[in-house]
Amino acid sequence: MQIEWTDGEESFADRAAKHVAARFADKPTQTVALPTGMTPVGLYRRLLALEAAGAIRLGAAHYFNLDEYVGVPQADSHSFAAFLHRHFLDQAAIAPGQVRLLQGDAPDIAAEAQAHDAAVAAQGGLDLAILGLGANGHIAFNEPGASWDATTHVVPLTEETRAANAAYFADAFTVPSEGVTMGIGMLRAARHILLMVSGASKAQALEAFLAGRPDPSWPVTALCGHPSVTLVADSALRRG
Ligand code: PGA
Fold first, then answer.
1. Closest to 148 measured CA to CA, from 205, 196, 207, 188
2. What is the CATH number of domain 2-237?
3. Is 14 a catalytic residue?
């Protein structure tokens, strides 16, 4: 595992963007899984700046989202799809056909999850999974106790996650009680993982990951032993 400790938001975003750019330089036709949340916002800004400067070509890759709220249409501004459009996709030179985002309000959500998996498989699987980390150790919406073999599936959201996500919205949006998420099995099968960790609430989860002992009560530890993980983490979280 490669660990990059960073100081401040700019360096955090910069190191993550440099890592993504290196992956794209290696293979412009990347299949990428994209996260939502506060953590990757600076990364997306940097990638757009790199693209504007001609330092990365985003348009040859295929993009998938990691997760979505069940029951929330993509057009709803609270959806993860809308977030990704707002912060990244709409400003990048990426053709719509290169993007597949989960449809949280699909009438048959299990079929929608399967279609997501099939679309990833049709691209040869994930080259790069970009992940944030939840305070409870979740990756995407894989909460503590989640199966480590799963593909995309529907999950109940913990109260902790619902409360953390409600804080993103100033309005009265009620965070749904279910999400649909790429499963840990699928994430572990990604050829490369970029795990981005910032925020004091993540300290314990990061510690569990760095301890290197697989423990289903900390889903992120499913990545321990993965052959290609890059951790970009705020040095404020560094212990010892
Ligand atoms: P955050 O969320 O980036 O907003 O901290 C990360 C997560 O819960 O996966």
1. 188
2. 3.40.50.1360
3. no
**Tokens standing for residue 173:** 């949006």
Joined together, the tokens standing for residue 116 give 């997501």
- Divide the 240 residues of the chain into consecutive groups of 10 and give the mean pLDDT of each group: 97 98 97 97 98 96 98 97 97 95 98 98 98 97 97 95 88 92 98 97 97 97 97 92
Respond yes or no: is residue 26 known to be catalytic.
no
Domain segments of the chain as ranges: 2-237
Whether the Cβ atoms of residue 33 and residue 101 lie closer than 8 Å to each other: no
Q: Is 181 near ligand 1, meaning CB less than 6 Å away?
A: no
Q: Choosing from 19, 87, 138, 192, which is the catalytic residue?
A: 138
Helix (H), strand (E), coil (C) string for 105-141: CCCCHHHHHHHHHHHHHHCCCCCEEEECCCCCCCECC
Residue 143 annotated in active site: yes
Distances (CA, A) of 128 to 44, 91, 125, 173, 186: 15, 21, 9, 31, 11
Asked whether 179 lines ligand 1 (CB < 6 A), one says no
* Single pTM value for the model: 0.97
Take residue 79 and report the two structure tokens written for it: 């959806």
3-state class (DSSP) for residue 62: strand
φ/ψ of 193, rounded to 5, equals -125, 130
